[in-house]
């Protein structure tokens, strides 16, 4: 047994060596984290009186004199207790944070149907309220939860700003979501910030950027809804580049999706539900030119959207109609192509990528039916819709 006059850290190290006790074994005996044991041995942390007693018992060390510089005095213990008390003091109740979380959830679930400008304004108002809570005194756990909720609102605002064609605000919100996710240590919020970056690049025709961003984001998102959507954004980009690896990517996305639990609220924008896979598959295979497979997936999207609860998916139905229009054009049916494709403009709620997809159909029509009256009419309709969106 070590003499009581020895420095505690030295005694601790000597006894561990003499007894062949590893840091992991000592952590098991004392129920402390291995990292805490390591910090004490390295002199990075001073052990508390309780830690000295527990480690001494575990190793058979007789202790250290009260004058040891590494021991914690009663006065220091009181300071530590006061620090804990202050850290746990808050001006915000947990009920307030729960109400905030419910509000954020409802807005995320309203994304598919609520008009973009209204959703933007409501989200900004809730963001202001959440930020005011962050300005108050909170516990550490409350502070993190508030950061997470503000992070989700930033993700939502990034998407909605892009839908209403305010691209500068969308990118500002995307960057904010990334920083908030980093501060909160929340991988999925970080993942969605990457997903927005990939989506914006896809809509703007920067396909190689999409692949790079999607692959980087997947490392942060892990097996989550954000991770699945990043894989499928990569698949879309590869399809637009005529790269058959889009098929491999979409299969990978399906395997990731199978690892997620079935959502209670599939309309939540940041939850990837199984029906959303059909929506992505229809577009990816249409872009690849795999018309038979694309038609099957597009028909399934329409079937889902025309069910009683299908009113939740106007943006998916619009995209499916564009895909069906492209497929009809390739079959030689110009009338159906224009009629079905024009149906995509019927909905007030529009995705930020809808007009880009409508341009896909126009390119297909011009390539196959140059100069046809119906093609000119579709072009004029698209120009009019773009002007209305920019107004």
TrEMBL record:
Domain HTH cro/C1-type, first and last residues per copy: 12-66
Matching Pfam families: HTH_31
Q: Which InterPro entries match?
A: Cro/C1-type_HTH, Lambda_DNA-bd_dom_sf, TPR-like_helical_dom_sf
Q: Which residues form a coiled coil?
A: none
Q: Which GO terms describe its molecular function?
A: DNA binding
Query: Which Gene3D superfamilies does this UniProt record tie to the protein?
Result: lambda repressor-like DNA-binding domains, Tetratricopeptide repeat domain
Q: Which domain of life is it from?
A: Bacteria
| Protein name stated in the entry | Transcriptional regulator with XRE-family HTH domain
What taxonomic ancestry is recorded? Bacteria, Bacillati, Actinomycetota, Actinomycetes, Streptosporangiales
């Amino acid at each position: 047994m070590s003499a009581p006059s020895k420095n505690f850290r030295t005694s601790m190290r000597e006894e561990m060596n003499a007894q062949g006790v590893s840091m992991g074994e000592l952590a098991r005996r004392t129920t402390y984290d291995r990292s805490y044991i390591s910090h004490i041995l390295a002199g990075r942390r001073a052990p508390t009186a309780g830690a000295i007693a527990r480690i001494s018992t575990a190793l058979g060390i007789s202790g250290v004199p009260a004058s040891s510089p590494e021991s914690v005095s009663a006065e220091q213990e009181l300071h530590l207790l006061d620090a804990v008390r202050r850290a746990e003091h808050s001006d915000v109740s947990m009920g307030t944070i729960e109400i905030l979380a419910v509000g954020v959830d409802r807005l995320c679930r309203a994304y598919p149907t609520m008009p973009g400008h209204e959703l933007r304004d409501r989200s900004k108002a809730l963001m202001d309220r959440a930020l005011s809570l962050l300005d108050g005194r909170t516990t550490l756990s409350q502070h993190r939860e508030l950061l997470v909720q503000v992070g989700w609102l930033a993700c939502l605002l990034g998407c909605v700003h892009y839908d209403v064609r305010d691209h500068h605000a969308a990118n500002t919100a995307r960057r904010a979501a990334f920083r908030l996710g980093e501060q909160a240590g929340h991988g999925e919020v970080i993942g969605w910030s990457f997903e927005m970056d990939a989506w914006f690049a896809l809509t703007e025709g920067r396909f190689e950027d999409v692949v790079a961003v999607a692959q980087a984001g997947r490392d942060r998102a892990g097996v989550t809804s954000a991770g699945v959507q990043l894989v499928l954004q990569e698949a879309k980009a590869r399809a637009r580049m005529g790269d058959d690896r889009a098929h491999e990517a979409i299969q990978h996305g399906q395997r990731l999706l199978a690892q997620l639990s079935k959502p209670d609220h599939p309309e939540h924008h940041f939850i990837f539900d199984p029906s959303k896979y059909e929506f992505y598959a229809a577009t990816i295979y249409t872009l690849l030119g795999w018309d038979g497979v694309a038609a099957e997936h597009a028909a399934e999207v329409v079937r889902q959207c025309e069910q009683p609860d299908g009113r939740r998916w106007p943006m998916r139905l619009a995209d499916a109609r564009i895909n069906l229009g492209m497929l009809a054009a390739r079959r030689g049916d110009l009338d159906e192509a224009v009629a079905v494709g024009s149906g995509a403009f019927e909905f007030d709620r529009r995705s930020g990528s809808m007009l880009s997809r409508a341009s896909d159909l126009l390119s297909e029509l011009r390539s196959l039916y140059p100069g046809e009256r119906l093609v000119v009419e579709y072009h004029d309709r698209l120009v009019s819709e773009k002007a209305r969106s920019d107004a």
